[in-house]
Amino acid sequence: MISIKELLEFQEEFDKKHSGNFNWNEKVTEENVEILQYLLISLVGEFGEASNLVKKVLRGDKKLLEVKDELSEEIIDVLIYTLKLIYQLDIDIEKVYYEKMKKNEKRFKKFEKESV
């Protein structure tokens, strides 16, 4: 099984080999904040594409099994942009994740199920 850290490293290496209007692996700073803007717009676009497929399932145009492969690709696109944001913003994923989960634990304590 591959770890999140390995996925981050793989994504960064992939990005180093590919470029467009800017370096895909460039760290986001105050001087190049437009990269952050582009990444977020791209992330929302991919999320929108996944949502559109689900909308078609919910209204009965398609069956979930018909769109599952395409939906899987869109969800992975969301993951790719999320990985890019994590490494390009130098987010300490383990630290921030566990800090957020502690906040969530307090926030959702009232919804805890009792152990059986």
Task: Provide an overview of this structure.
- The chain is mainly α and 116 residues long.
- 67% of the residues lie in helices and 0% in strands.
- The protein has four helices and no strands.
- Helix 1 crosses helix 3 (64-88) and helix 2 (34-58) packs antiparallel against helix 3.
- It is globular and about 45 Å long.
- The chain starts with a helix and ends in a 9-residue tail after the last helix.
- The mean pLDDT is 94.
Please summarize what this structure is.
The chain is mostly helical and 116 residues long. It contains 4 helices and no strands.
Outline the fold blueprint.
Layout: H1 4-16, H2 34-58, H3 64-88, H4 93-107
> Which radius of gyration do the C-alpha atoms yield?
18 Å
Q: How much strand?
A: under 5%
In N-to-C order, the SSE pattern is HHHH
The major sheet is characterized as: none
End-to-end span in angstroms?
Answer: 30 Å
Low-confidence stretches: none
Helix content: 55-70%
Number of helices: 4
**Mean of pLDDT:** 94
Secondary structure category? mainly alpha
**What is the general shape?**
globular
Number of strands: 0
